[in-house]
Amino acid sequence: MQYVVTLTANKNLAPLTSHHATLTETLLKSLGSLSCETRWLSRGTAVDIVFNKVPLSVAREKITARLDPVPVDVNVQELKGRRKRILIADMDSTIIENESLDDLADIAGLKSQVEVLTEKAMRGEIDFKIALKERVRLLKGQPETILRRFLSEKLKITDGAFGLVKTMKIQGAMAALASGGFSQITEHVAKKVGFDINLGNQLLIRDKKITGEISTPILNAQSKKEALYSICNNQNVKIHETIAVGDGANDIPMLQSAGTGIAFRAKPIVQTATPFRINHCDLTALLYIQGYHDTEINK
Questions:
Q1: Does domain 83-299 fall into CATH 3.40.50.1000?
Q2: Does the annotation mark 102 as catalytic?
Q3: What is the CATH number of domain 1-80?
Q4: Which of 58, 105, 207, 279 could anchor a disulfide with 110, C-beta 3.0 to 4.6 Å?
Q5: Catalytic pick from 48, 68, 73, 92?
């Protein structure tokens, strides 16, 4: 059986070099690989090294340790079946750079009270539903215009998001956005980036003011996992043909269920929950991990 290690980096800050590839090849051969084939996907940013014989867990551990001082992402998997038919992504701090609820609170002058709850929830220190309800309650009485202000003044799409979604859709994949954030924002982001489906929690508005409540049932960690399986069933796609990405504790069940679940610049609890991690490259890394070459990527 053949395996592949994909190295990715931030070309502008600390580019990948032939030295990194050679170092990895030499290590794999010392561990028992009978052959190593290197293919550059993007000069300075991404490289594939195909190998055999070395167990995935051993290759991942040893290569990560060898390259630890270098700002390089190391992801190892079976070569066969790496391209996926469904993408499901978290929104906050993943597809967008923002934590949208924190930024809404900032507009309302409540950021210091809200962001501490967000951080605890994303680290898995408090239950997501409880944290969400408490944060929404703090927004009670705020004008609904803060949603429009967020979208027009603060929204920042993460680098690589447009290319990721566009490229996978051109290749026939379906893209879904699943967020514990508000549907008023997920709908906008999904349309802007090109997602086919968007799922979020509805922030309740009455008389043009936020009521401090959200509709039920609340979309949480289990809901994201269920959404993944539901989309697979509807599209007649096997679960191993999916790729998921997220950064918070409420993404873990989704990431662990997907064929390839990627922790993107994630909280420590998420980093330890999945073997696939991106900390240096942008979201284009999800395409490189699937073996896409720069010439195949539509940015």
A1: yes
A2: no
A3: 3.30.70.100
A4: 105
A5: 92
